[in-house]
Every structure is written in structure tokens, then in C-alpha cells.
Design goal:
alpha/beta; Immunoglobulin-like; TIM Barrel; 2 domains; 8-stranded parallel β-sheet; 5-stranded mixed β-sheet; about 20% strand; globular; arabinogalactan endo-1,4-beta-galactosidase activity; signal
Length: about 450
Amino acid sequence: MSLHLFRPMVPAVLAILLSSSSALAEAPYLGADLSFANEMADCGAVYTDDGQAANPFQILRRHGGNLVRIRLWNNPDWTRYSTLADVKRSIRLAREAGLQVLLDFHYSDDWADGDNQPIPKAWEGLDQGRLVQAVHDFTRDTLAALAAEGLTPDMVQVGNETNGDILRAPKTEGKPIRWARNAALANAGIRAVREAAAATGHPIQIMLHVAQPENLEAWFADAEAAGVTDFDIIGLSYYRKWSRQPITVMGRTVNRMATRFDKHVLLVETAYPWTLEPSSASPSVLGDDSLDPAYPATPAGQRAYLLDVTRTVIANGGIGMVYWAPDWVATKCRTRWGEGTTWGNAALFGYGAQHAALPGWDYVGAHYAAPVPVTFRLTVPAGTAPYFWADFLDNGAGSFPVKAKDGQVEIHTTVMPGTTMRYQLFDGPGFGHPLLRATKDGVVARTVTTATTLTAKAGR
């Protein structure tokens, strides 16, 4: 949405002109979900990089990646992969390649995603108290088993794409979310991860994960209200097939989430096709309905898309990007969906017996410019319930509530150097009465070269 549409509604606007450049305090997470790698190897897949055979973990690392994501199901009876034994195999390969590990608990015997969160068969019929205990114990016991073999992950997802009620009957909607129940289950998993980290002395970051950026804000606001706060990272999936937000708006959502909830944000799933031709008899999941008009379904288009998505996430204060299933190529094996794979045209390997690495891998080795951190310290009248608006955070949802303590509001955010930033506090939702006094022309300009603190006092 263009800025001029907001100017009549935001009469008291402060602006800052940012310039210079800065580096991220730490390198961003640039990685891939390689949960299919073991199955593909057992099915005879050969991957090559610059003509040399290598496994996907090695290829990820060689191109500059630093994080591998691995999923875990509870007790699947339809596959021997994504079990605890398979996860151990993957973590060993990741460690040999010098990669950090994100372990993704699905809390299911099968795929858990934004539409389905099927409860494990062993947990069906449990009352809430026993279900909460089951989540805690399964999480704790899994991490203890990994720690016993020196395989503790660096990051843990408590649930996968938990848009609706988790641990529910298959094919049920899960909306509206029963937050008292949902929060108890999420907090049980979180508590178990904290206990595992304390027991081993190995820090483990905790992520909560929701599919598609337009679903994030309401979910995390409700989670916070229900008492789900002891986590470190907001994870999101972003696929153009299912998301209405273009890349630029997705970026504002990333920054808005980091700013509003004071959490790190990681794009933990995305993908893009490099061709519309399927790799086998099975139809492709990502077809022409998954394309952004600016990026054709070619190897170069896939590469440009991944570079721009990653650049956008990091420019908006996100801590990195993880590509989903670059390793899921066509092999002699069949799946429940048919011959080969439904994902080959969105993998990061070409067709043919050698599965050559595509240029899309460049996203993990590219340099990404870092944003400038900015802190707002704003004084408001006692008893005020303020709402904050900034053009670079507005994804179409307008202002959002911020906490005031003893008449003070402190907001942490980031913007790219060279950005003209406009912002305002209001005394209620939407674009009501502004609380901050603007200059005569409604704009204040300032050059910022390092971390910056801005102060202002409410007044009209």
C-alpha cells in the first residue's frame, strides 16, 4: 500500500533518514530442510555439485549454509523415515558437515501442517492432563536420547505450522483455537526443551511456527494473551501458492512481528519451482499457481527469487531463511502419492541420474546487507493504551498495541540504511488521535549511522 494513502490519516508523523551500512551482529541462518535426504539415499539418488558426487548436507555447507532442519514424527507406521533413529542418522551427517541443527517436532505420526494436526495414535483418548504430560515427556525423552549420543540440536520447533488446534482428530478444522488447551500443550513442549537444555548445558533456542505471514499476528497475539511467551523465535512458512502477500509485504510482516513481539523471526519454509515440467509421473505440487510474475520458472528465476526473499527477510530484521526439501528428487522408489516425487521441480537439483546442483543454492552463500537497529523511547500520559504505526511495518493491518509502563513506551525495531521512516503513536486502535507532536511540516529527518535511540513526548 503506497505511503501517500496514509498521510491524511497520520497528521503527526515523525521521519528519520537513515544512511550508512552495518553488518549483522551474527551471521544469518541460511539453511535447508533435508528431512528427505536419507530416504533419497536409500532409494539410490545421486547428487552432484560441480560434477562431484556429495550428499545434500555437504552441498549445503559447501555453498555457505550453516543450518539444517530435520522433522520428527512420533511413531509413524507408514514409513521408516523421520523417526528418532532416522533423525539421529541425519544429525550425524549434519555434524560431519559442520552444520547447526533445527529439530522440528510435528507431534504427530504423519504430516502436521497448517490444515491438519493429527494426534498420534498412542495419544488418542487421553484427557488434557495426560496429553499435556505426554507432550512434555515425549519432548524430554527425545532430547535426552539425542543428548546421550552427543546429538543435541541447537534449535527446536515445538510444533509444525500450528495454525489451528494442535493434537486434534485428523481432518478436523481446529478453529477457533481453544487457547487454554493449546497453550497448555505448547508450554509443555517448551518446558521440556528448557529442561533438556539445562540438563545438558547445551543452549537450545525454541521456535513456534505458523504457516503464511498473513496468519502470524493474530496467532501470536492470542498465544501471548494465553500465556505462551517463553520462546525465542517466530517461525513462518511463505509460499506464493498459499500466501496473498507479495515479497515486500511479507518483509514488512517479518519486521512487524519482530517489533511487536520482541522476538527473532526466521523464515523456516519456502520454495520456488525452477521448471513447470514434472520430474516424474506424479504431478508437481508447485505449478504455475505458485509463481510470482517477476520470477519465471527457470533455474535463473528460482535463484533470483530465493536471493530476493532472503534479502527481504534479513533487511527487515529477520535472522535467516530455510529452504524446504531441496533434496526431494525423483528416484526409483514410490511414495503414497505415486511414482517418484511431487516436488522435483521445486528441488535445488536438476533432473537426470546425477541430480546436479542448481544455481538456486547461491542463496546460502550470498552477502546480505544488514538493517540498522532503532529503539524508540516515547513518553505518553499515564493510563494511555498506545498503538504504534510505522510505514515500514504496515502490512495493511494499521497500528498495533504496544505496552506502556509508568508512562513510557520502548519499541525495538530495524530499518535499512537510507530508509525514510515515518511513525506515530495513537491513543487507540486504527488511526485515531495522534500522541506525538510533529514539526511544522509533519516530518523530522535525521541521519543514523549506528544503533540509534529516539525519544519523544506525547503532545498535540
